């Protein structure tokens, strides 16, 4: 892993755990194992580093959402696509925790980021699902844009707190198995609330 990637990874972890205001550039540099001037060579300020952390996280949707857009009108491969959608946060819950922290602490900044990285795909997904509704494949009462927002919310918020909530989810002693159960149930809920019985029979 190159130094720039290590900086982003450690900044994500520390911002998620301590908050942006509670984390210093020196702490991030120490976590990476480099000197502070070396970190500032890659990112001129803590604010620039934060912007890059959020942009990298949200930029992931640009890679994943087009696939969901193309496949959402049919249940075929829906599970695999949803797994890709949730895996980014499941494999590193700090990303989900940071997403929640930034949404609560800096809503205006996050609105701008979401408008840039996520909203265009949500709009296109809405159009795709409306066409699928017209063909009888998607439930008539689905609000496509709201559906997309709810799936994202469940994926992010659920992943952010799942390691704590595992205490009330019995039968998952192995670390990481709770996350897998969360992901499976999220996918089941997302699928069953979207498609008609006719599509499910195909």
Q: What is the total domain count?
A: 1
In this structure, how is the largest beta sheet organized? none
How many DSSP helices?
Answer: 11
| CATH class call | Mainly Alpha
CATH architecture annotation: Orthogonal Bundle
Please outline what is shown here.
With 202 residues, the chain is an all-alpha fold. It is built from 11 helices and no strands.
Set down the secondary structure blueprint:
Layout lengths: L2 H16 L6 H8 L3 H7 L3 H26 L6 H13 L2 H13 L1 H11 L1 H16 L9 H22 L11 H16 L4 H4 L2
Report on this structure.
This protein has 202 residues and is mainly alpha-helical. The protein has helices at residues 3-18, 25-32, 36-42, 46-71, 78-90, 93-105, 107-117, 119-134, 144-165, 177-192, 197-200. The chain has a single domain (46-200), classed as Tetracycline Repressor, domain 2 (Orthogonal Bundle). The protein starts with a helix and ends with a helix. The model has no long low-confidence stretch (mean pLDDT 84).
């Amino acid at each position: 892993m190159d130094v720039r990637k290590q900086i982003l990874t450690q900044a994500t972890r520390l911002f998620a755990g301590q908050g942006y205001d509670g984390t210093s550039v020196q702490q991030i540099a120490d976590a990476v194992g480099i000197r502070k001037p070396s970190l500032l060579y890659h990112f001129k300020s803590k604010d620039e580093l934060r912007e890059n952390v959020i942009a990298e996280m949200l930029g992931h949707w640009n890679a994943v959402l087009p696939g969901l857009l193309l496949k959402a009108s049919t249940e075929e491969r829906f599970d695999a696509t949803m797994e890709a959608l949730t895996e980014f946060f499941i494999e590193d819950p700090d990303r989900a925790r940071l997403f929640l922290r930034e949404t609560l602490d800096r809503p205006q900044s996050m609105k701008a980021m979401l408008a840039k990285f996520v909203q265009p795909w949500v709009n296109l997904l809405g159009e795709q699902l409306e066409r699928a509704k017209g063909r009888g494949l998607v439930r008539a009462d689905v609000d496509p844009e709201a559906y997309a927002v709810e799936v994202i919310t469940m994926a992010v918020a659920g992943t952010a707190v799942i390691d704590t909530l595992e205490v009330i989810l019995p039968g998952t002693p192995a670390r990481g198995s709770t996350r897998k159960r969360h992901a499976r149930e999220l996918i089941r809920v997302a699928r069953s609330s979207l498609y008609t019985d006719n599509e499910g029979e195909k």
